[in-house]
Structures are given as structure tokens and as C-alpha cells.
Amino acid sequence: MGPGGIATIIAASSLAIIALAISYAVIRLTRTIDEITTTISMVNSPLKSVSNAGKSLENLIKKFTKGTESFFDENPMAMKAATAVVSAAKGKKKVKKKSKAKE
Question: Does residue 72 contact residue 79 with C-beta atoms inside 8 Å?
Fold first, then answer.
């Protein structure tokens, strides 16, 4: 075997080592990406639950609002009574604040 044959063997061996190193890096990178994907899925699942709970609460509030609006639209006396209660409550708070300020 001459010097050309030895150089060919060295070149082929180094090429094989480089190919093995690249393969190892790709396999490790694939495993890392899979692990990151699993972690993201674990993080996103509670967020989806919170989002669904928020949507449910929003729907409940909309239904409640529609119900109260229709009740007050159909019963104008109830609207007047509610207005009187709210204004009385606001007036009572003002009286309490004034009496505390005098003391």
C-alpha cells in the first residue's frame, strides 16, 4: 500500500467520524426538541383550562346581563325601585362620611 492508499484511508476515516458526530448532534437536537414540545404542551394545558373558565364566566355574565336587562325592560317599576335603592345607598355613604369628618 502506497502513500495514496494511506491518505485515502485517513480521509475516509475522518469523513466517517465527522458523519457520526453530525448524526449524534442531530439525534440529540431531535430529543431536545421533543422534550421542549412536551414541556410546552404541559404548560399550555392549564392555560387552556383557565381560558375555558374565563369564557364560561364571560358567557354567564352575558346571560345574567341579558336577563336583568329584559327584567327591567318589562318592569319599569322595578327599574324605578332599583334606582331609588342605589341613590339611597349613595346618600347614606355620604352622610356617614360627613359625620365621621365632624368627629
Answer: yes
